[in-house]
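Reference record:
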Amino acid sequence: RSFAQSLLRFLGFIFCGSAAGQAFGGILVILMFKNYRYLFQESYLSLPGWLALATALTLLPTGVLAVSISVKRSRNKQGTLMYLLLLLLCLELSSAALARSYSIRTASQLESVMGYFVHQHNWTCSQDPGNSAVDVMQRKLRCCGVHNYTDWLKASSSSRYHPACVPESCCKEEYSHCRGDLGHVEQLSEEGCLKKLEDQLCFAMTYMFWCCTLLSILELLAGVSNGILMRHQPYHDLSIL
């Protein structure tokens, strides 16, 4: 009983601290799908992020309640804690399952969607920097093409309207006079956008999955500890019966 009381107090502090980690993961997922919404057409892909924010808001009162129960036990508080732990467990497992399935699903779609944008992009060898979705993505990620700059060469060879150059958004930031000339390949970004975007997606979803999984285990421990304390506390309020 004393071990369960100490464990519940420790887990209460963990829950309060992990609320910030959950909020960080949720905001990370939401912003990623918001910034690249033209690549991810489904609006529900940010659902794991919103579930993580709801979890973070629920973790704070749960942690405070767990610490207070470990100091002074109350039947009402113990029952409320059990309900909150059950709610958290549902949110965590849902977030982990969605993050896992969405990461596999979106990774398989990214290459075809990005390839479509590259072939449909209309650019010229001029000083116009371009403000299309592809240009914004290449500047933000500091990348060029789907795999590398040769994807733009394939797009230009397949259409007579495309010039033999790359968009200026492929240029590195330190080369202010770069115009996408293929004669100066060293001025272009080496990495493709697909790998960089997949790395960001993998980091966000993996972070969400393991954070939710670990917290689910801790919530089960908190439920067991709270159950032990409830078992050793008789119902004094019903003794009159």
Summary: Residues 1-118+204-232 form one domain. The chain has two domains: 1-118+204-232, 124-193. The helical segments are 2-35, 47-71, 75-120, 133-141, 150-157, 193-231. The two ends are 27 Å apart (CA to CA).
